[in-house]
Structures are given as structure tokens and as C-alpha cells.
Amino acid sequence: MTMKTEATTDLKSGKSPKTTADYAKYFQPPSLKDAKKRGKEEVKVHYDFAIPEDMKDIGKGKRYYVRTYGCQMNEHDSETIAGILQQMGYSPAEEAEDADVVLFNTCAIRENAEDKVFGELGNMKRVKNNNPNLILGVCGCMSQEESVVNKILKSFPHVDLIFGTHNIHRLPVLLRDAMFSKEMVIEVWSKEGDIIENMPKIREGNIKGWVNIMYGCDKFCTYCIVPYTRGKERSRRPEDVIAEVRELARQGFKEVTLLGQNVNAYGKDFQDIRFGFGDLLDEIRKIDIPRIRFTTSHPRDFDDRLIEVLAKGGNLVEHIHLPVQSGSSEVLKRMARKYTREHYLELVRKIKAAIPNVVFSTDIIVGFPGETDEQFEETLSLVEEVRYDSAYTFIYSPREGTPAAVMEDNVPMEVKKERLYRLNELMAKISLEQNQKLHNQVVEVLVEGESKNNPNVLAGRTRSNKLVHFVGDKSLIGQFAHVRITDVKTWTLHGEIVTKVEV
Ligand code: 5AD
Ligand code: SF4
């Protein structure tokens, strides 16, 4: 029943509105409650995206700058945004100060991510004062939150444009509105839109590329804002995904990462075919591209078909990011993760049996409301048992509108910090031990570029995604090299080149 809540983009009220309530006559503010609804209607796929004729040259001689926060999904959305802007004639600027259009593609996952955006939006006031013609826009997950839209209206009136995650394809029209309107232009849809297939993308380089396989998330883990900001699960048609990966192979890309909030649920929304993530990977592995990765997996939907396909190896790398979040079944239940510690460990055991050299990484939240010392100890013991090569670890951050935000949180911040510290210490120890196994071994490295700290050193990654530094000729960038590991650190490996390998 929720209709697309489209904003009226130009307010002619005459007085300066202060909150979304003032705007309410004209447009529907984003609503997490509406975003929660999951309709049964079929997702339409559109193949007819085009920049409107009168906007094709609007950016000629002008420059844009996109600042991206958060996950790979956002990074990839920024590539689409860049693609659209370039089709409008804009060219990229090195700095926000040099740009005519600046967009902040934002992340809502934790409070500190949001605070960072607000801080940098504040800094943009000076830039805007120096260049009053600058169009400053905010998009991404934060735009989907009413509280954020309200805060921008109240405290950041130098923002010209707000749009959400579901209407990126509307950017040309919204940008034009923002150029000609005196008011802030806001268009956020609480309900996800259809899939728009043929939007342009500007990828950075031609070594590694991201490919979306699905959008949205229906899992509703109790701490997570993503199902609200990204809408319901919608899978791209297999033929569209396969065509995009083939095209990247043709362009010489060496690695593709398939993206989704919950890739294991791929295809569950198809009404006409039975075609899951395992089936998709089984097709994609036949494409002539040396490395295929995917992120992010949910343990609940990780099925035997997928394990069977991954075990075929080849270009499917033996690295699996498998967020566990907690090692306590009790906490997992309150997080609504829909698996227990035992289920998770059984899944890990099955995967290890099928793919003997598999490497795991994970995400862990400490200090979830009500987490006891014993429950935290269970997380540590699970980490010991799985022996992850790496982990992203977080202190729980309440997100307004999610079920966990109203749970009683009796864990003091000091305790949460101490738990994070202990977990990180343990992870560092295990990472180092895992890396030490590679000492003196020869690994295949996809060379990505120069090391950040030393231009004479090359940096690349193993199939298991470990960072390797070694001295080598710059002509190796974009190629595969065999490197003998001579020095092992917690986060990096150092080595010397053995031979150049053709893949
Ligand atoms: N607080 C802390 N961490 C969170 N994550 C998601 N939501 C929250 C939250 N409210 C973490 C999870 C997820 C990763 C992307 O971010 O671990 O897997
Ligand atoms: Fe958030 Fe859970 Fe969906 Fe991951 S699976 S995006 S943690 S709701």
C-alpha cells in the first residue's frame, strides 16, 4: 500500500522551513516505519535509463566530487553516481574545493559514521561560502532517516539537495531542480523502487570491479538499520549479472566482487525461476576472469549447493566473509540472527571439510544490550575455535527505529570498550598465527599498485585477500606475481618476487 513518497522539489512557501513537519504539506518525509513494510508485488526491471536530452550538456566545463562513506555497496553506488554525472558532461575534481557539485554518499550503520558526516558537512559551509554556486548534496543511507533529514534542514541549510538510496537514477532531474531552486531539494523514497539496469558506471582502474547481484535486506537483525535504508531484497536477473561480469572480463578486469547485503538470499525473490546464489556462482565461475569474490554472506542462508559450488575452486577464491556477530546463542537470539552458536560452528566445519584451505573473516558486535561477561567469553571462545584470519569488530551502536534501540542496555561503556580491546587483542594474536603459516610459502598476488608508504614497493592481495608488499617492477601492476613470503606481520605480509605468472 505504500506509494513512492516523492517529494515536491521546489517549495514556494515564502518562509524558511525548519523541520520536515513544515515540508509535510508538500512531501512525505522518509519513514523507517514505511521502509519496514515488505510487499509481495513483483519487482520490475527497467532497461531504459537515459539522461534527459536537455541535461546531457548541463555539466560541460564543470566538475564533480563524490565523498563516499561506509561499505562497498556505497562505493559501488558512487561509481554509478560518477557515471551519471559524467554522462551529463561533468568531469571529476581532485578536491571538494575545486568542484561545482559535491555529493556526500553517506553511511548510517553506526552513530560514529553519522557523526563524521555531520562534521564534514559543517566544514562544507566554508567551501560553500567561497563558492556560492556550488551544489552540495547528501545521499546514501543517512538520507533515508527522517531524523537526519530534519537535522540537515535545521542545522545545515547550506545543503542544496538530499536524495536517497532508491532514486539515484533521478539524479539528473534532481540536480537541475537544485540548480534552479532557492530551497533545499529533497526527494527520498521510503519504499524501494524497481531495478534500473543500465545506469552508467565509472569504475576505478580495470583491475578489480564490483558487481551488484541484489539490493536490500529482509533479515531485520534487531540492531541493524540496513533493511530500512536499503529496502526489501531484490535480485538482479541472472542474465544481467552474467552479462556484466562477462563485460568486465572482456575489459581485462582480474577480479570481480559480487555484492549484496545478504548474497546467500540471492534469487529467493524470483517468482518464475528457481535459481539461487550457488547456481549463479556455478555460471559465473565459467567466465574467464581470474578471481571471483562475494560479500556479504549470512550464515542462515549458506546452503549445501553453495558449498558444493565453492568447492569447485578455480576462480572462486577460498575466502569467505561470514559475519557471526556473537558467539552466544542467547545474544544471537536477541539479535534475531536466526542461527545458534552450534549451527554456525557446524556450518564452518562443513565448509572447512569441503574447502580445506578456506580462510574466514567475520564481523563481531560487542556490548549488545544485556550481553553478560559469560556471553562475551563465548564470543572469544568461538573466535578461538573458528580461527578467523581477520575480523571487523564493533561496539554496539543503537540505531533509532530498530528493535534493539529500545532494549534495556545495562552494559556500561567502559565494559564495552574493555571487551572490544580484549577481542581485538585475541584477533591480532590469531591473525599473526594464521599469517605465520605462510612464512616461506609462495603465494599468488594480484598486484594492485604502489604501497601507500613507499612508492618503491608494490602492494597486492592473495586469493585469501591478504595484503602483500614486495619490491618489483611497476609493469607488474594489474598482473599476477608469485611472491615468497619472507616476513610476517599481523596485518601484512612481506615477500620477494619469484616469477611473473600469466593467468
Ligand atoms: N552497531 C554496531 N555494529 C553494527 N553493525 C551493524 N549494525 C550495527 C550496530 N547498530 C555491524 C555488523 C555488520 C557490520 C556491517 O556492521 O557487524 O555485520
Ligand atoms: Fe543488517 Fe542483518 Fe541484513 Fe546484515 S543481514 S544487512 S546485519 S539486517
From TrEMBL:
Protein origin, superkingdom: Bacteria
Radical SAM core domain residues: 203-433
Ranges for region Disordered: 1-23
Residues annotated as domain MTTase N-terminal: 62-180
Subcellular location: Cytoplasm
Keyword terms, alphabetized: 4Fe-4S, Cytoplasm, Iron, Iron-sulfur, Metal-binding, S-adenosyl-L-methionine, Transferase, tRNA processing
Domain TRAM: 436-499
GO MF, any single term: tRNA-2-methylthio-N(6)-dimethylallyladenosine(37) synthase activity
EC main group: transferase
Cofactor descriptive note: Binds 2 [4Fe-4S] clusters. One cluster is coordinated with 3 cysteines and an exchangeable S-adenosyl-L-methionine.
Chemical reaction(s) catalysed: N(6)-dimethylallyladenosine(37) in tRNA + (sulfur carrier)-SH + AH2 + 2 S-adenosyl-L-methionine = 2-methylsulfanyl-N(6)-dimethylallyladenosine(37) in tRNA + (sulfur carrier)-H + 5'-deoxyadenosine + L-methionine + A + S-adenosyl-L-homocysteine + 2 H(+)
Primary location recorded for the protein, binned into one broad class: cytoplasm
Task of the protein: Catalyzes the methylthiolation of N6-(dimethylallyl)adenosine (i(6)A), leading to the formation of 2-methylthio-N6-(dimethylallyl)adenosine (ms(2)i(6)A) at position 37 in tRNAs that read codons beginning with uridine.
Quaternary structure (record): Monomer.
NCBIfam families (UniProt xref): miaB-methiolase, MiaB/RimO family radical SAM methylthiotransferase
Family statement: Belongs to the methylthiotransferase family. MiaB subfamily.
Name of the protein this chain belongs to: tRNA-2-methylthio-N(6)-dimethylallyladenosine synthase
Organism per entry: Brevibacillus aydinogluensis
